[in-house]
Amino acid sequence: MNTFEKIYEVVTNIPKGKVATYGQVAALAGNPHWARVVGYALHVNPMPGIIPCHRVVNREGRTAPAFAFGGADVQRQLLEAEGVVFEEDGRVDLKKYGMKI
């Protein structure tokens, strides 16, 4: 299994209504230094409807500024549709919605 496949496997296992950070995904995929690689992998997600890349946020709980699969705010809309509530400052509460590792 190559690096991107490992990342996609981890992301596929993020439960609906939960999020994980790039760093968490990297660590679970085998290397905690791959956070940027996670971003690259998600940007070329070969199966957006199957691999839920919208469930990956940055370490502050913020969504991508220009979500790769639909533009600004699409990531937030997808997460809200799954029941994720955003704070007033636009962040996801990682203690409440973060995937437990």
Task: Give a verbal description of the structure.
There is one protein chain. With 101 residues, the chain is mainly α. The protein has a single domain, classed as Arc Repressor Mutant, subunit A (Orthogonal Bundle). A two-stranded parallel ribbon has the order 1-2. The chain is globular, with a radius of gyration of 12 Å.
Q: In percent, how much strand structure appears in the residues?
A: under 5%
Write down the secondary-structure element order: HEHHEHH
Residues in helices, as a percent range: 25-40%
Average predicted confidence as pLDDT: 93
Quaternary organisation: single chain
- Beginning-to-end CA distance, first to last residue: 22 Å
Beta strand count? 2
Instruction: Specify the CATH homologous superfamily.
Output: Winged helix-like DNA-binding domain superfamily/Winged helix DNA-binding domain
What characterizes the major β-sheet?
2 strands, parallel
Q: What is the radius of gyration?
A: 12 Å
* CATH level-two architecture: Orthogonal Bundle
Widest beta sheet: strand line-up:
1-2
> What is the domain tally?
1
The CATH topology corresponds to Arc Repressor Mutant, subunit A
- Class, according to the CATH hierarchy? Mainly Alpha
Backbone structural class: mainly alpha
Number of helices: 5
* Unreliable spans: none
Shape: globular
Write a concise keyword list for the protein shown above.
mainly alpha; Arc Repressor Mutant, subunit A; two-stranded parallel ribbon; 2 strands
